[in-house]
Amino acid sequence: MMMVKLTARQRSQLPTCYYEGYLTKRSFKDKTSRKLWTCLCGNTLFFFNEKRNTEYIEKVDLRGFVSITDDSSQDRNLDAARFNLQLKEENIRFTALNLEARELWKGYIRSVVELAVPASINLLPGQIQTLKETVEKEEARINNASPPVVTNNAAPVSLQGHKPACYHNVTRLEAELLLEREAVRGNMLLRPGSAGSSFAVTTRQHLEGSIIRHYRVTPKHTGGFLIDVDNPVLCATLHDVIHYLVEKSDGVLTPLIFEETYEKNISFISKACENGESSLQQALTSLGPPSAPPKKVEEKEKEMDSLSAAPLQPPKKAIMPPVPAPRKLLPSPSSTNGDQKMRVVTEPQGQIPLAAMSELKLKFGQISRC
């Protein structure tokens, strides 16, 4: 069986990617057609749920390649173009986005499996040159590739950072409950073992009831991991352990992997002013430049320090408007003698008027006569 489902190597760990794009895949085992991001890496097709995903969900080994032919059946999308990939053990139907994409997929697949550019291919000269470069890269990859060999002198495998995506840090009972709750996602997981650095694989299948199995996986001091069954199986990595179980079960065992999904639009619940009904709204994306962030507290403190460090200047005196001179008051006829004396005394420059002097002389004369 050349089709293997779901190992968990990162995309950066795959062979060189020669061509990639969306393909709709349908095989005998697929219940429905699925649109998957497809990468031709080396002589293998790797399938991802989305372009941004880093772990593939399925792969097809092209070493069992037989033929690739056009499919003239119509699709709901009139621009789409179908083709059939015939392998030794199965036939897979693909749907490309358009005729040009179909020709490119056919050209790349035949180039990597035949190590030659197809003679009958409807592509531009620049695209044919790219296929020639792909053939050279694939030949170099095959010549430099060497199968992994586990020897007695091999160093122990590091367990950190090499765990498959189906690894879950759960107990034996929690693993059984998790597989029961997430039966749609997968029926096999890798978990910590009961003894030290060992691991365990838990599977759950249904046959007139739930059938749960546990398999011990122990690391070897000489390198690799051993599936502890009647005929022990030695695998180089934990990924190969999962790969082996999937392959030997013809894809029936599917690793349980939780893929994180993220929203592509910002949405919020808004209440209408007219009737008070709530509805889900999408926020408008601003095309303008982002506003400047507010000043931090540290920047404000620096500004205060710079102001305090500046030399102090004496405050300027305020300029007052000129004060008008007081008006000179003239004595009124009805004023009393006391008032007249006060007015006489307060005359400017201390001078007494002549009329007042004559009146005083007259009064002093009358007093002397008495």
- The share of residues in helices is 25-40%
Number of helices: 7
Strand content: 15-25%
Question: What's the overall geometry?
Answer: elongated
Overall mean confidence score, pLDDT? 77
Number of strands: 15
Q: Main traits of this protein?
A:
370 residues; alpha+beta; eight-stranded antiparallel beta sheet; five-stranded antiparallel beta sheet; 26% helix; 24% strand; elongated; disordered N terminus
How would you sum up this structure, described in words?
Helix 1 (99-114) packs parallel to helix 2 (125-144). This protein has an eight-stranded antiparallel beta sheet with strand order 1-5-4-3-2-8-7-6. It has a five-stranded antiparallel beta sheet with strand order 9-10-11-12-13, sandwiched between helices. The chain has a two-stranded antiparallel ribbon with strand order 14-15. By secondary structure, it is of the alpha+beta class. It has seven helices and 15 strands. Strand 14 and strand 15 (278-282) form a beta hairpin. Helices cover 26% and strands 24% of the residues.
Give me a quick take on this structure.
Helices cover 26% and strands 24% of the residues. The chain is an alpha+beta fold.
